[in-house]
Specification:
single chain; Uridine Diphospho-n-acetylenolpyruvylglucosamine Reductase, domain 2; Uridine Diphospho-n-acetylenolpyruvylglucosamine Reductase, domain 3; seven-stranded antiparallel sheet; five-stranded antiparallel sheet; globular
Length: 455
């Protein structure tokens, strides 16, 4: 058992070890199929708490892991120091400069609401309950990506606790190599305690979703695949084949149905948005139409991601293209007439904004991709170990001709191998990213990723 008596005198938030009250509750994240049992949990209530926790871990040769909301959990944490950042949930808006300063544990919902008071919006993820910092550290591909690029492109500064316990700022002027790495490099670099991000003027947009019933999935999906090749680049769309269980928490109109959701977001004038969406509406009879002018503060409605914690399993890949042969192969595995163990199969289409890196460069992987393919399993956790991984492997294998060689770290699934971990970045970016990590964390205090054995 690790002696935490001295640490408790230096930290204002809770310091917990196995057997303490609230130990399990403190480590619980959004994905409930994981049960974390680290040696120590530090519930950071300030940046100084993070400093003390990192110094304690280094002194005791314990690995450090970080959790905000826990959306990115892929495995049980069984050792080391787990720093939870959910108490660092502050948001400060400077409307004159269109900048927001956000804490390490804040969710997008809080940032969106605060920015909306000034007619501003962050470049957010699809889910309002997702931790903003984790999203940004991986690059961040959300429902406005074709209008504004990656979420990380809008980061202007990070506040970071390094492996030696120093609290520094990383920006284009201060620690620029670390700033480069943090915009897309994800983990293993330090503990981000705050970030300053640029907001955009966006009080409203034309967005939402069109739902097509099972018999119309194929014509609607094929029409969408043609559409993404011709629509103007600033329109962001995605589709999801959803097998919705017959359970009480599912809204009655969609409960127990297999549907195709076509998601749409356009940040220009409403009449132009309606015109641009018309081909999708005309693709097949629409079962439910929830597409129109919406406040930017309601952006999470576009994807309709879960808002309550639960069990789940997800994996994703980047796509090098989307065409009719891709649709044929996809439907051959995931069509409404197939036995398929996934609740959601999602395809996102990306335009030129993703491919354009920031002027000083960033470590974000997947910029050359034309889309993303994700699978989500929810209903039966008993299938997660025995059935789901094999089914996912077969599904992605069938679609291998369209899988891009470089993934994005936010879509990868826990780095089960060195190859998977390395594959989240182009080789030259990965090598530079690893060099930055060694520079700032030579002793490997921050446990992250999968590394080849040192000879």
């Amino acid at each position: 058992m690790v002696d935490v008596a001295a640490l408790r005198t230096r930290v204002t938030g809770p310091v917990l070890i196995p057997g303490d009250d609230n130990y399990s509750e403190e480590s619980k994240g959004f994905i409930l199929n994981f049960s974390h049992t680290p040696d120590v949990i530090v519930g950071a209530a300030s940046a100084q708490d993070v400093v003390e926790a990192v110094r304690f871990a280094a002194e005791n040769v314990l690995p450090v892991r970080i959790q905000a909301t826990g959306h990115g959990a892929h495995a049980n944490i069984t050792d080391g120091v787990l720093i939870t950042t959910k108490r660092l949930d502050t948001v400060e808006i400077d409307a004159s400069t269109r900048l927001a300063t956000i804490g390490a544990g804040v969710t997008w919902a809080k940032v969106i609401a605060a920015a909306a008071e000034y007619g501003l919006a962050p470049i957010t993820g699809s889910g309002a309950t997702v931790g903003a910092i984790g999203f940004l550290l991986g690059g961040g591909m959300g429902p406005l990506i074709n209008s504004y690029g990656l979420g990380s492109d809008r980061v202007r500064e990070f506040e970071v606790v390094l492996a030696n316990g120093d609290l520094v700022r990383a920006s284009g002027d201060d620690h620029p190599d670390l700033f480069w790495a943090l915009r897309g490099g994800k983990g293993g670099l330090g503990v981000v305690t705050a970030a300053r991000i640029e907001l955009v003027e966006l009080p409203a947009l034309y967005g939402g979703s069109l739902l097509f019933d099972a018999e119309n999935i194929e014509p609607a999906l094929r029409a969408w695949a043609r559409y993404v090749d011709t629509v103007e680049p600033s329109v962001t769309t995605s589709v999801a084949i959803m097998r919705l269980p017959d359970l009480p928490f599912i809204p009655e109109p969609i409960r127990g149905r297999t549907l195709l959701s076509v998601r749409f977001a356009y940040t220009g004038e409403a009449d132009t948005g309606e015109r641009l969406a018309a081909p999708l509406r005309a693709a097949a009879p629409v079962y439910l139409d929830d597409l129109g002018v919406m406040p930017a503060s309601a952006i999470a409605k576009i994807h309709g991601d879960p808002t309550e914690p639960g069990v789940g399993w997800a994996e994703g890949r980047m796509l090098s293209g989307i065409d009719q042969d891709f649709v044929t192969t996809l439907l051959g595995s995931a069509g409404s007439d197939r036995q398929f163990p996934f609740t959601v199969v999602e395809v996102r289409a990306f335009g030129s904004a993703l491919a354009t890196d920031v002027s000083i460069g960033s470590a974000a992987g997947g910029r050359e991709s034309k889309g993303a393919l994700n699978v989500v399993a929810v209903p039966d956790p008993e299938l997660f170990a025995a059935v789901i991984p094999g089914a996912a492997s077969a599904f992605f294998g069938a679609l291998a001709p369209w899988i891009a060689p470089i993934n994005n770290v936010n879509f990868a699934s826990g780095f089960g191998s060195v190859a998977e971990y390395r594959g989240a970045w182009p080789p030259s970016v990965f090598d530079e990213l690893e060099a930055v990590k060694r520079r700032y964390d030579p002793s490997g205090v921050f446990a992250y990723g999968v590394h080849e054995p040192v000879a």
